[in-house]
Amino acid sequence: MDDPAISVRNLVVSYDNRRVLDGINLDVARGETMVLLGGSGSGKSTLLRQIIGLARPESGQVIVNGVDLSTTNQKELKKLHRSMGVAFQNAALFDSLSLEENVALPLRELTRLDESTIRLMTWMKLSVVGLADFRKLTPQELSGGMKKRAAVARALALDPQILVFDEPSAGLDPIVAAELDELILALKKAFNMTVLVVTHEMASAFRIADRMAMLYKGSLIAVGTKEELQNSSHPRIRQFLDRVPDRIFQTASTRETLEHYLEGGLL
Amino acid sequence: MNTSMLDQVGHSTLGYLEYVGGLVIQSGKTIRALPKTLPLFGNWTRWRSAIGQMLAVGVEAIPMVGIMAVCSGFILAMQGASELRRFGALQYVIDLVTIGFTRELGPLLTAIAVSGRSGSAFSAEIGTMVVSEEIDVLRTMGIDPVEFVLAPKFLGALIMLPCLTVVSCACGILAGGAFMRIATGTAFGVYLSGVAHSIVLHDVMVGLVKSLAFAAIIVNVGCLEGLRVRGGPDSVGRSATSAVVKSTFLVILADVGFTTIFYLTGGH
């Protein structure tokens, strides 16, 4: 792949001698929507933190927009962050600020634009996500879906080249989740951004992805198009796609154990 | 067995060194970011935020600091009087209260009150920001959390702690005067002229310098405890408790250091 927007090379991350990411290699092309799939504890949030520059790799490289995050300095990292918008899982809006102030924050902090331009740009970003009429409200007054859309508006504030979503559908009802998927698709079409989405919601992933990567126990077990993943015969991918549980709860065995305990036996 | 004990001692020592190192590094960063919170030189948003902190740390703490100082001034005067009366030296109660408050009790009581009120608040606020990923949001936007969150708190505390110390000294000394009026019938004017005689500018300056150091300790410990929060809401609560315990301990330790230095250099 020529000049990918995001390139991860032999990435290794460990916590307390436990390897969380084990030799990850992944390229995301410019203008592509890559969906990072994986179960709980598979390492997808850790990989995301590496890609958005919140943690430094133990070994290996993470190159975003040509900047190697393992060797870059704070100044370059700040510059890179301006070209990247991140919408976090819990929206992470500042409760003390109104919706408008939340979206205007990066513009006020990082640009020299005058106040009227900032207000206009803020209104435009909020309009894109359908929240312009709610701009005076505080985050506490918004629903879960509105908060997520507000987080997207804030991520869009500086017109980023790369947009990152951490679990966009988590905690949302199917209708609001579907609306958010359509918003991601519309944004990509309108601004031709590179989009990286971390999720475990299969319906959402298949709706928005150009390509998908699947993490399992810290390793990438598949990278490919939607069709390639859909037709994969890899047992873990099949289990994930077909929603097969790892273990079935043995209710009969639980009942016997409880009866034994109630009769004075040990658990 | 011995290896395990050595292991534990080594781990604890490394843990303390890491904490102190973190505190020193963070203090350095906060001091470097301080000019950006000043009006005219810095960013108006930060200055507005610093004013908010001054209200929270300083103005809202006046009743608590005042009441603590009044009670302590009264107690100090009573205890002093009960001993000094035996030597017929009741007039020295005025010196005891005045010097005691300007040099020691004023800054120390204020620091303990602010540590309990604001140290825990700083830690809980920043800890919640960590848990709710707000600190991560700032970093991914390219905004320095030290400049955005910590520096206004630092400036607010640096300005307000000396002010509160003056309030505390005034309340404590006036409470001493009230005791003298009630217990011995000393006229308030006489008491105040005694205070004016025993108060020394050097002592006041020492107290104010101490309060600046205490402000730096309270803010940096509170903020560091908040930034070290990992996990959920229970760790926010733990960090708030830890912030109060550690900052109070470090304030007292710093006070011992200051008093020793001034004692050895003949300042007292």
Average predicted confidence as pLDDT of chain A:
89
Unreliable spans of chain B are: none
Give the strand tally of chain B: 0
Give helix and strand order of chain B, one letter per element, not per position. HHHHHHHHH
Proportion of residues in helical segments of chain B: over 70%
Key words describing this protein structure:
heterodimer, A: about 270 residues, alpha/beta, six-stranded mixed sheet, four-stranded antiparallel sheet, 10 strands, B: about 270 residues, mainly alpha, about 0% strand
Could you describe the 3D structure shown?
The complex is a heterodimer of chains A (267) and B (268). Chain A contains 10 helices and 10 strands. Chain A is an alpha/beta fold and 267 residues long. Chain A has a single domain, classed as Rossmann fold. In chain A, the strands form 2 sheets. Chain A has a 6-stranded mixed β-sheet, sandwiched between helices. In chain A, a hairpin with a 2-residue loop joins β1 (6-15) and β2. In chain A, α3 (99-110) packs across α4 and α4 (115-128) packs across α5. The longest helix of chain A is centred in the last third of the chain and has 18 residues, at 174-191. Chain B has 268 residues and is an all-alpha fold. In chain B, 85% of the residues lie in helices and 0% in strands. In chain B, α4 (92-131) packs antiparallel against α9 and α6 crosses α8 (201-227). Chain B starts with a helix and ends with a helix. The relative contact order of chain B is 0.15. The model of chain B has no long low-confidence stretch (mean pLDDT 92). The A-B interface holds A 52-54, 77-82, 84, 86, 88-90, 92, 94, 105-106, 108-110, 154, 158 and B 45, 132-134, 136-137, 139-143, 148.
Write the layout of secondary structure elements.
The complex is a heterodimer of chains A (267) and B (268).
Chain A: E1 6-15, E2 18-28, E3 33-38, H1 44-51, E4 59-64, E5 67-68, H2 74-82, E6 84-87, H3 99-110, H4 115-128, H5 144-156, E7 162-166, H6 174-191, E8 194-199, H7 202-208, E9 211-216, E10 219-225, H8 226-230, H9 235-241, H10 251-262
Parallel strand pairs in A: 3-8, 3-9, 6-7, 7-8
Antiparallel strand pairs in A: 1-2, 1-4, 4-5, 9-10
Helix pairs in contact in A: 3-4, 3-5, 4-5
Chain B: H1 2-33, H2 44-57, H3 62-84, H4 92-131, H5 134-141, H6 145-184, H7 188-198, H8 201-227, H9 233-264
